[in-house]
Design a protein that fits this description.
Rossmann fold, six-stranded parallel beta sheet, about 35% helix, alpha/beta, globular
Length: about 170
């Protein structure tokens, strides 16, 4: 069994969190990190853990309009410039085997606004037949474009290691 981390990122913060989560998972399982625009619409048969994350935009998953606004704020270029998690999840096929899922998001630390891209993603994944491994997790940024709050990369790595340990399948 192996794991896949699929992420959407505007300014790079969510990408760095995804890579740190994968670093933690890698202690227990082989893992691949994929930007959402390159993610396949089907989960491969050897995937036992799917981790999905993106930024919280307008209290939930990004939309084309919120991604456009983010690109304009940055000067025209963002990491995930083709599609977001919302579109990918709409096209994602029901898994043929049991796959556990964990979701995460990035969010501005102050003010603490309601809403969560991670909860929205989890709801869609569970409707497709994925099993929840752990509750959704939020990682914080200082401002919309970052930087990440001190300690968040380390916290993401620890979360990934706990997640990998929780779903690790014994060999033999």
């Amino acid at each position: 069994m192996r794991a896949v981390v699929v992420y959407e990122s505007m300014y790079g913060n969510t990408k760095w969190i995804a890579e740190s989560i994968a670093e933690g998972i890698r202690v227990h399982l082989p893992v691949e990190v994929i930007e959402v625009g390159s993610a396949p619409a089907e989960v491969a048969a050897d995937i036992g853990l799917l981790v999905v994350g993106g930024p919280t935009h307008a209290f939930g998953l990004s939309r084309p309009s919120t991604r456009h606004d983010a690109a304009q704020r940055k000067g025209g270029s963002v990491v995930s410039d083709r599609i977001g998690l919302r579109e990918w999840l709409a096209a994602l096929a029901r898994p043929a085997q049991r796959v556990v899922v964990a979701t995460f998001d990035t969010k501005i630390i102050k003010p603490r606004l309601p809403g969560s891209g991670a909860r929205g993603a989890e709801k869609r994944l569970r409707r497709l037949g994925f099993d929840r491994a752990v509750p959704p997790e939020t990682f914080y940024v200082e401002d919309a474009q970052g930087p990440l709050v001190d300690g968040e990369l380390s916290r993401a790595c620890v979360w990934g290691e706990r997640l990998g340990a929780a779903v690790e399948v014994p060999v033999g």
